[in-house]
Amino acid sequence: SQKIEQNSEALNIQEGKTATLTCNYTNYSPAYLQWYRQDPGRGPVFLLLIRENEKEKRKERLKVTFDTTLKQSLFHITASQPADSATYLCALDITGAGSYQLTFGKGTKLSVIP
Amino acid sequence: DADVTQTPRNRITKTGKRIMLECSQTKGHDRMYWYRQDPGLGLRLIYYSFDVKDINKGEISDGYSVSRQAQAKFSLSLESAIPNQTALYFCATSGGGGSAYEQYFGPGTRLTVT
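The joint structure predicted for all components is written out below.
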């Protein structure tokens, strides 16, 4: 069974709109959850980390929420730009022990259309 | 210079050959990781090392071995390459302090086994 589900393989959005990406997980109680950006042929780049006791985290145009009851994180990009087009990965510690070992979702490919 | 480097960047090899992928980092991090990425399967952890004397198997370690030669160097070996090991391989590091859980990725090695 899938451990971490990013329920859209691809998402197309108009420039200027808010993009919302979803990450769901089952059967775990992670101490934190992370979001990464990956451009084609390149390594993932860390964006944001949110801890289990945090409901929301912001960084510039990015916002992440973490609902441990729903076992879900939402990743928002406001005022999206074509340069935001990339694949976005969520990752979490499935051991639940606050370890340094991450399990990644398969990613959502975001395309921002001018 | 890049903080995490991988060599080679591209490699084509034949079935049955032994191959080594190398990773070096200048971030001073203790923890290093090897992942492979396949279309549709996402990033999967092969091995990880929390210090020079601590090496652990990840989700998909069969057919691979690793060596942590120093804090800054972590090598991945395929003793007898097979075609289904064709993939994009990434090395990553993580360190201490306030950003202990963030992982920093290298540029990747594209390996093709024919």
